[in-house]
Amino acid sequence: MMNNRRLYYQGQHHGYYNSHVPCNPTVRFSQMVQQQYAFVPAQHQYHQPNFLSFDNGWQSFQGNSGYPQDHRETIRQDILSQLHHKQPSSSVGHQNRKRHADSLPSSSSSKKSKGSHSVESSSAVIKDVPRPPSGYNPMHSITEAIIRYFLENHQTDKAYKQKLQLRDVLFKIFQSCMPNCGLYIVGSTMSGFGTMKSDMDMCLMITEDGVDQKREAPEILYLIQKALYKCSFVRESTVIRAKVPILRFNDLISKAQVDLNVNNGVGIRNTHLLKYYCMTDWRVRPLVLYIKKWARFHDINDASKATISSYSLCLMLIHYLQYACSPPVLPSLQELYPERFDGTLDIRELKFDDTVSYKSDNGQSVGELFLGFLAYYSNKYRFEEDCICIREGRRYSLDDYMRFKNENFQLQPLCIEEPFDLSNTARSCHDKNIFNRVKRVFKKSYQELQKKKDVRCLFNQPF
């Protein structure tokens, strides 16, 4: 099988030293290149970087700067100055496309467009807590609490720019031994659903072909971990083996916790899609942040504890806004813009700065939508029988979905179709007893909020 794969990274015949994983004489993607394949067309060809040159790459930065190793901020600023004054001149690879990993737009740079929504125009709507409308409206206190929480906790432009600087520094270091790699910010930091406490997720793309996430990705991450020991602004690094392995470390300057994966391209597509849902209607961002706050308080927002991941919670909200609201708050963006969200589109061609031409006729407040979200999953959604599909803006019965759509779908107490690879994003919810508690939290939360119309009743104690 190795002979049929495109391999781009040159290794040593003796493999790589690793204190965590013993050397294996068996040929691995991360250890030895048997043959280099050229992309078609030729300008997409990948070079043959050597993972062992990480150390040399870092030493060259340190040597050029003339600064002691422990002056991490000075070294970091020197690298940033190199990036600002001398952009990479190579004409091939991930980093040189028109819109590439090194030039993703910030949330403050999106231009407004007539008849459409952008990140900036969506954010501009939420500048202060809304004033009570004329006449008594018990839902206003819920809306006020949600907007206030959003204003106090959403990721600021300053925090976002600090994360971009960290990405630029890491990209420059990785590029020294992998000239044509791509380093993408993914997850809530880029999608618009981040808070000031959100981790920073990044994806290092090193090949268009897949990387074995079980065997090869951890080896590559251990090599990167070893290289980052040279970076004094990196602390507490550890490789976490999971379905998608990650290298987790803390940046001492931005204070961000970073989760780095290798070649998880579907995560880049997910971030791209969620960013545009965030742009489509201004109510989506505060709802997502508040739902995650509520779910964390009740301990149902942790995939490692067999509960719902943040990504799945976002998809649950989008489904509700597409399917259960009348009129809908959100469309299916994959149906509205099939070419933009084509799952076969080269990741390097994804645009993060387009606009969305859609205006909902739904005039419900954020408070009404939050209560409706709890009501839908408490009383109307059939967890044992239904499957969420935001790709088509609907829900399927599990029998129909598996018969006509995906017979290999992994059944769990909660079933949510991943919009691109069609897997179950809620596969972490594998324990029925634990998920019964999740459903009880939804139902109890709805009953209390419906009765008292005051969100403080949701945070007295976990249900």
| Helical coverage, percent range | 25-40%
**Strand order, largest beta sheet:** 1-2-5-4-3
Q: Report the count of strand segments.
A: 7
Order of helices and strands: HHHHHEHEHEEEHHHHHEEHH
Separation, N- and C-terminal Cα atoms: 51 Å
List the helices and strands and how they pair.
Elements: H1 54-65, H2 72-85, H3 119-124, H4 140-153, H5 157-175, E1 182-186, H6 188-191, E2 200-205, H7 216-228, E3 234-240, E4 246-251, E5 257-262, H8 265-280, H9 284-297, H10 310-324, H11 333-336, H12 366-380, E6 386-389, E7 394-397, H13 398-404, H14 432-452
Parallel strand pairs: 2-5
Antiparallel strand pairs: 1-2, 3-4, 4-5, 6-7
Task: Describe what you observe in this structure.
Mean pLDDT is 76; it is low at 1-76 and 86-125. This protein has 14 helices and 7 strands. The longest helix is centred in the C-terminal third of the chain and has 21 residues, at 432-452. The strands form 2 sheets. Strands 1-2-5-4-3 form a 5-stranded mixed β-sheet, sandwiched between helices. α2 packs across α5 (157-175) and α9 packs across α10 (310-324). A hairpin with a 4-residue loop joins β6 and β7 (394-397). The chain has helices at residues 54-65, 72-85, 119-124, 140-153, 157-175, 188-191, 216-228, 265-280, 284-297, 310-324, 333-336, 366-380, 398-404, 432-452, and strands at residues 182-186, 200-205, 234-240, 246-251, 257-262, 386-389, 394-397. The protein has 463 residues and is α+β, with helices and mostly antiparallel strands.
